[in-house]
Amino acid sequence: MQIGFFDSGIGGITVLHDALKMLPHEDYIYYADTLNVPYGPKPKDEVKKHIFNAIEFIIEQRVKAIVIACNTATSVAIEDLRSKYSIPIIGMEPAVKPAVEKNNDVNKRVLVTATALTLKEEKLQNLITKLDNEHIVDLLPLPGLVQFSESFEFNEQIVLPYLQEQLFKYDLNKYETVVLGCTHFSFYKDMFRKLLPSHTNIIDGNIGTVKNLKRILEETNSLNEGNGNIIFYNSGYKVEDKAKLDKYSKLFKRLDDIDV
Fold first, then answer.
1. Does 86 have pLDDT greater than 60?
2. How far is the C-alpha of 47 from the C-alpha of 63, rounded, in Å?
3. Is 115 within any annotated ligand binding site?
4. Of the residues 76, 178, 180, 182, which is catalytic?
5. Are 50 and 207 a contacting pair, CB within 8 Å?
6. How far apart are the first and last CA of the chain?
7. Residue 182: active-site member
8. Which domain holds residue 74?
9. What's the confidence (pLDDT) of residue 101?
10. Mean pLDDT of 197-226
């Protein structure tokens, strides 16, 4: 059986990329809700409806586990999804915990970037309240990066000025860690690296999510001997157009090439 990956768009490919490294002998379905991306600016109830429609479709494809490779979808729907479905559903959240716990300097801060909806959701707010005893966490929505990635825009001359503008009001030397709290943002790690001081760590929740997936598959004796095949769906429609499939291949190549 396959593993289902779900995201509002292409951001979850950054998580799938790590899954292919850690679990190369699994087969995958990747569902991008391209008709409704981005989720970040939309009302919570509308987003939840889109998520449930997508997950219902993925389950119909006979998967053994689902990774919600989207911080926004996890924050608004993970508990309801787990209540409704019996198969393992693995979510993800901005890597606030490792960022705060590994902060080595009381004078250094942590900057959490994500979509506006993720940042204002109770799930993340509760996590920050629990962990951030020293009040070192700052929050920054970066909706433009979702729009850029969904347009397959990775030109530094276009994206870097946007990032510079958004980061301008922060004294970046004060930050020990920047958390990429949206899977789309990981496509731009190399550009963050160019703008941030060399001492600043850049982290996301991708590897942790895939490790959790692997652990669950091992516990349920569900590891496969597949071929690393991927079937792509865009809002319920199988992607068979060669040009679109080539675009997805280039995303994996970009992730291979990024070095931060």
1. yes
2. 23
3. no
4. 182
5. no
6. 35
7. yes
8. 2-92+206-257
9. 87
10. 93
